[in-house]
Predict the structure.
Amino acid sequence: MGWAVVWLLAAGAWARVPEGDLLQRVQPGPEGKIDLLTVFAHPDDETFYEAGTLLKLTADPRVRLHILCLTLGDRDAAKDKLGISAERLGRIRVQELEAAAAVLGAEEVIELGYHDQGLAAADPATLVGQVREVMERTGAEVVITHDPYGITGHPDHLAASRAAREAFGQSAGQRLYYVTLPPLRYSCNRLFSTFPGEAERARPTLRVQIRGEKRLKKAALYAHSSQKHFSFWNGLAMKEDLLYNYEYFTLAESK
Ligand SMILES: [Zn+2]
């Protein structure tokens, strides 16, 4: 077991993930624009592991970024730390998402308003229909979502990833990407994953260098103030996340 751990970590650390461009060979829409849609479960999921890349993409005048967030993030631990109701935390987190979206240069934020930790219980067909409707309205050529294991295994992330995958299959979208982790982190996650099959599908296939975008990424991350200051693990994750000079993705589907 010990050697397996060492081998997996080493293999992960030295794995060569090529640098890539998420828009490579993507055909723009009729107005010459490329619509990019992110589909995530909670406010802050759009920023953690991909904000640098989104900032790079929105610097391209052809790109319009649409941020779809499925829940209000209203049942987070921050609620107890702050001593406020779930409803109030939901309002705060939607405002935080709007602030982060402004930093990222997004055109719009679309909020479906599900409750935090409620996506897994939502009717899957309804959820897929709602996500597909947003894909059709925005004309998204490129979609980014959680990997099938959702990095942390959070049931909302899993449900969001499933819905995005299914809706993408029914849409005119050209590329579907999963946000994933740097190889070393990915190997650790895979090792301790209770969903090894799903984690396997989140193996990174391309990386994007984000050195020039880190300051703005920090501003976007810190816009999620309730998570930085009142959720210990998220605060720690934000600090760790800001150490990385690359962000990692899996090309899940190309058509
Ligand atoms: Zn989340």
Observations:
- The first strand starts at residue 34 and ends at 40.
- The chain has a mean pLDDT of 90.
- Residues 30-254 form a domain with the Rossmann fold fold (CATH 3.40.50.10320).
- The chain has eleven helices and seven strands.
